[in-house]
Each structure stands twice: as C-alpha cells, then as structure tokens.
Automatic annotation (TrEMBL):
It comes from the Bacteria. It comes from Mycobacterium gordonae. Residues 13-293 form the SMP-30/Gluconolactonase/LRE-like region domain. InterPro entries: 6-blade_b-propeller_TolB-like (IPR011042), SGL (IPR013658), SMP-30/CGR1_Lactonase (IPR051262). PANTHER family: BLR2277 PROTEIN (PTHR47572:SF5), LIPOPROTEIN-RELATED (PTHR47572). This is Gluconolaconase. Pfam families: SGL.
Length: 315
C-alpha cells in the first residue's frame, strides 16, 4: 500500500516512538508493560519494565525518560471502532486490566530503573486531583514536559480531562481544561506552539505559548478526515517536522495525515493498520516512523515528503 518498510514486528501494541541520534527508536509496548529500543538493524532490547500500560514516552535533556503510565488494559481481539455491523476485528484494549496499577507519571533512569514521579496534579483552581489515564507527552527545551490525560469511559459515562505541564522538580499543573479525550501532543520546532489531538472529535488544537507551561492563545487548527470502518476514524499521536508541518497518526484510515503550520491539508501516507497510534520524524526530517499497534509493527518511510507528494526533492 505504501513504501513503508517494517523495522520491527511482534511488538505488543507499540506507541510513542522516540528517535535517537544513532538511528534507534524507543517505543512503549502497552500490552507488555515494557519500554523497548528498536535498533537501526531491527533488533530489539528492553529498556525498562514500568508494568501496567506505558503509553507516551519523552526523553528528558539528561537522557532519562518520562513515561505516561495509564494503569494498564486488558487486550484481545474485538470490534473497532464500535460494536456495530461493518466494524473490523483487531487486537486492541478491551477494558480495564485485571491487575491495574495506579495511573502516574514515571521516570526511567538511564540504567532502566523506574520510579513514580507523581500520581496527581494541581488544577487551575488549586485543587489536587488524581491522574485518570495519562496518554502522551512531549518535552520542551527547558526540561519540562506537556502531558495529556486522556480520561476513561465507563458504561455511559466518560471523564473529561485536560492538558498538563510539569517538571521533575515541581510536579504537574493543569493549564487547559476541558478537552475531549486529549491524546497526541507535540511542540513546533521553535517551541512557541503546542499541538494537541482530541481523538474523538478528530480536532487538532494549537496553543500559542507565552513561556513554559503558559498559554497565551488557543485555536482549533484543523480536523483530521474521517475514514476506515464506519467512516469514523480519529486523531492519535502528533509530531512535527523541522519545517513546522504537523503530522497526525490517523485512526481508521490508518497512516499519517500531514498539515501545514497554518492547518492546510497537505497529504497523507496510508498504511494497512487502522490502529496507527503514533508518529515521529528523524532529526534530518526525511525519515518518518509509525507505530502500527494492532499488528505490532514499527515501520519507517524514507524521504516521506516525496512519498506524500508534498515535494519531490530535498531543497
């Protein structure tokens, strides 16, 4: 379907690729409670075992990892996106884990040691609230990090959550509320804009930052097209490239949808897994990595702008 090549398979619901200078990629494996390094030759090695359901991963300036621990899930084959005629059957989370852990932000040291940084955050009114289901994270140049708390659905009720900012020293502070199932998150190359995906609405928010953890302005940047089974789809992981383009892992249709910094739809790179959970771009801007969760793969697209038809050369 595309020129995406498989770098690694057999991964247990991979998420949140973090590209290293040596060409390796760190991913979380939500269904295995594990953080894994995929080497440039495709070999894998365990970085850490946070347990539960490690989701978003970010690298701090000192080399440690910050991990969104969502508490865990029970995985198996089930209908997606809803249990309606016309859905597809895929490997996915089916409900709460049999032995959940407390949702938290975890820190993974360079030797693989895992520690809980916090299980709570301070709301804008000053109240202390527990984390519900931390989803994704991105680290800024100051060593702080932006984090989405995705919330949960139980029966006919869903928790409404928001956007958080934190540091290792000071914990987490809510900076935007409410958001509808916030998920993927990424900073612009200059660090002045923050992009957040709402999975259910397919909306991409743009937050203009006045400083670390301080929002000056907010607007809806764009909406990811629907697609896939039942023509529903959703917006999952988000990344940016050195030119400021916004890349969104697109549920349903599968693959990545690409937007200009102004929100204009530029193109898409489809793949054969409707559960494309996250995306990352190499530092040179020309290799694109996708986590295909339901089929357990990490794939890479070389010279992805040309593949997407955005431009044909490197100029």
């Amino acid at each position: 379907m595309t020129v995406a090549r498989c770098l690694a398979d057999g991964l247990a619901f991979p998420e949140s690729p973090v590209v290293s200078e040596d060409g390796s990629v760190v991913v979380s494996e939500m269904a295995a409670g594990r953080v894994t390094r995929v080497c440039a030759d495709g070999k894998t090695e365990t970085v850490a075992r946070p347990g539960g359901g490690p989701n978003g991963v970010g690298r701090l300036p000192d080399g440690r990892l910050v991990v969104c621990q969502n508490g865990g899930s029970r995985f198996g084959l089930g209908p997606w996106p809803y249990d309606f005629p016309g859905s597809v059957t895929i490997f996915r989370p089916l409900g709460p884990a049999e032995n959940p852990v407390t949702p938290s932000v975890q820190i993974v040291d360079t030797d693989g040691t895992v520690a809980v940084l916090t299980t709570e955050f301070r709301t804008r009114s000053g109240a202390i609230q527990p984390l519900i289901r931390p989803s994704d994270v991105c680290v800024d140049k100051y060593g702080g990090f932006y984090l989405t708390d995705g919330g949960t659905t139980s029966g006919r009720q869903r928790t409404i959550t928001g956007l958080l900012y934190g540091t290792v020293e000071d914990g987490l502070q809510e900076i935007a509320y409410p958001l509808e199932m916030p998920n993927g998150i990424a900073l612009s190359p200059d660090g002045t804009l923050l992009y957040v995906a709402e999975t259910r609405t397919r909306r991409i928010w743009e937050f203009e930052l006045a400083g670390p953890g301080r929002i000056r302005r907010a607007r809806g940047l764009t909406t990811v097209p629907s697609g896939g089974a039942l023509n529903i789809g959703g917006a999952d992981g988000v990344s940016t490239d050195p030119r400021g383009r916004v890349l969104v892992a697109t549920l349903g249709a599968g693959g990545v949808t690409i937007f200009s910094p102004t929100g204009k739809l530029l193109g898409a790179i489809p793949v054969d897994d409707p559960m494309t959970t996250n995306v990352a771009v190499s530092a040179d801007g020309y290799r694109l990595f996708m986590t295909l969760a339901s089929t357990g793969r990490l794939v890479v697209v070389d010279d992805w702008p040309a593949v997407a038809g955005i431009f044909a050369d490197r100029g």
